[in-house]
Design brief:
A hairpin with a 2-residue loop joins strand 13 (about 215-225) and strand 14. It is built from five helices and 16 strands. The two termini are about 35 Å apart. The protein is α+β, with helices and mostly antiparallel strands. The protein has one domain: Ribosomal Protein S5, domain 2, CATH 3.30.230. It has helices at about 85-90, 130-140, 175-190, 235-240, 275-285; strands spanning about 1-5, 20, 35, 40, 50, 75-80, 100-110, 125-130, 155, 160-170, 190-200, 200-210, 215-225, 230, 245-250, 265-275. One of its GO terms (molecular function) is mRNA 3'-UTR AU-rich region binding. Keywords: Cytoplasm.
Length: about 290
């Protein structure tokens, strides 16, 4: 489950908790394929806090209700566990929940036969209960080929890995796409699959970490222009009062951890409202950390 929130009555940087609930499935023996596989998650990688750095550029005079500078984003924290534990932690936030964006990601991994028309491809399916966010997630995670489906093949035409993510958005108080971009990426990075598949009476033992297959690290930045000032990571109220709004998702430079060929790509960009071209250009450069 994922949260981003700003604490009430504080002038410090906003803080948040982001949580993820992971499920587990094992496929049954069928169509001449037997397996004794384990599809799980490295929970140690799913307990962390992201202290989002300030956006490049000089901050303007801020009158934000949560005390942040105009170029300051809220931090995100992530935790994994069973649904009951996460719901208890969620409810323990009390009144702060009204200042938060919240979503839960259910993840299921399966070893199964591939589709007949795609015999050498696994699958990555992402479904969100909010249609307005589904299109953005499709562009960021499906059309961009963050996880090449060919790499999910175990035995061509026989067995592939199927990953399904079901997302429930509980609250959207601003910044929900930033949370889901980070949450889905970290969910994928935490999946491990240990397989022992019997095919034609022979065992096939394979170990896969999905993090080795992921091609890049996506990150989302949003901003809103309110009274002439560009506010990054706007709250719901700031977005409603804005004369212009922009959301951009791009690939982060993470050194040699994954394929660097795509570093710097813009995966998704949305703009609405009115803004001078020079200011829009400057805002884009700041969001992309281009000097």
């Amino acid at each position: 489950m994922y949260y981003k929130e700003t604490s009430e009555n504080t002038c410090e940087k906003g803080h948040g908790t982001a949580r993820e609930q992971s499920g587990r499935r094992e496929s049954d023996a069928s169509d001449g394929v037997q397996n004794g596989s384990t599809c799980g998650w490295d929970n140690n990688t799913l307990h962390y806090t992201i202290n989002r750095e300030k956006i490049t550029g000089t901050p303007g005079i801020s009158s934000r209700t949560d005390g942040r500078d105009t170029n300051q984003e809220r931090s995100i924290s992530v935790a994994a566990g069973n649904e009951g534990m996460l719901l208890r932690k969620y409810l323990a936030l009390g009144k702060n929940i009204f200042y938060s964006s919240a979503a839960m990601i259910y993840c299921a991994v399966e070893i199964k036969r591939p589709q007949q028309e795609k015999p050498k491809q696994g699958s990555l399916t992402i479904h969100c209960n909010e249609k307005y966010i589904q299109q953005e997630l499709d562009k960021i995670f499906n059309r961009s080929k963050i996880l090449p489906l060919e790499t999910l093949s175990i035995i061509p035409k026989v067995a592939v890995i199927s990953i399904k993510l079901d997302i429930s958005v509980f609250h959207d108080k601003g910044g929900i796409l930033e949370i889901l971009t980070e949450g889905i990426y970290k969910t994928l990075m935490g999946i491990t699959v240990e397989e022992e598949i019997y095919h034609q009476n022979k065992p096939h033992r394979i170990s896969k970490s999905i993090k080795d297959l992921v091609q890049f690290y996506p990150t989302t930045v949003s901003c809103a222009v309110v009274n002439g000032s560009c506010l990054y990571d706007p709250t719901e109220e700031e977005s409603q009062a804005a004369s212009a709004r922009m959301v951009i998702t791009h690939t982060k430079n993470i050194g040699g951890e994954t394929n660097k060929d795509r570093t710097g790509d813009i995966l998704y960009w949305s703009f609405s409202g009115s803004m001078r071209y020079r200011d829009l250009q400057s805002t884009l450069k700041d969001a992309l950390c281009i000097k």
